[in-house]
Design goal:
single chain; four-stranded antiparallel sheet; 7 strands; about 25% strand; binds zinc ion
Length: about 140
């Protein structure tokens, strides 16, 4: 079931989780399932590592002091984001959140994703940079 992004809280939780996954250089075609539900089909995005598996987001959460990624990574740190073009990000988002329009732009602070969706118009930006996990409701 796709994550319901029509509430601000869900949208922010999903944004934080997806950003955290990105920080950890992991990705999944599946949307954020919730904190204590196994996030399946995770894959390591580092060059030189072909790990796939499932992890709980609650174990990946930076605010709880977790920094688990996955055990036994053979990839090169920092290679994931560099090799990922904008089109891949928008494609992945569109797959994970069907029916929601995403716009991606690149500025001096990094990439910014804007999306709208839901019965109540919800506008959220998520900045993809070194320190991720922020999102702001637009006026
Ligand atoms: Zn790895």
């Amino acid at each position: 079931m796709p994550l319901n992004l029509t509430t601000r809280r869900n949208a922010e939780s999903a944004t934080t989780a997806v950003d955290r996954l990105d920080d950890l250089e992991l990705h999944s075609p599946r949307p954020y399932p919730g904190s204590d539900v196994l996030w399946e089909e995770l894959a390591c995005g580092r060059t030189g590592c072909d790990w796939t598996g499932a992890l709980f987001y609650s174990h990946l959460r930076a605010s709880r002091g977790h920094n688990r990624r996955h055990v036994g990574c053979t990839g090169t740190p920092g290679t994931y984001r560099v090799h990922r073009p904008d089109s891949e990000i928008t494609h992945r988002l569109a797959e994970a959140f069907p029916g929601i329009d995403f716009t991606l732009s690149t500025g001096p602070d990094g990439r910014t994703i804007t999306w709208t969706g839901g019965p109540e118009p919800l506008h959220v930006t998520a900045r993809l940079g070194t320190h991720q996990g922020t999102c702001n409701r637009l006026p």
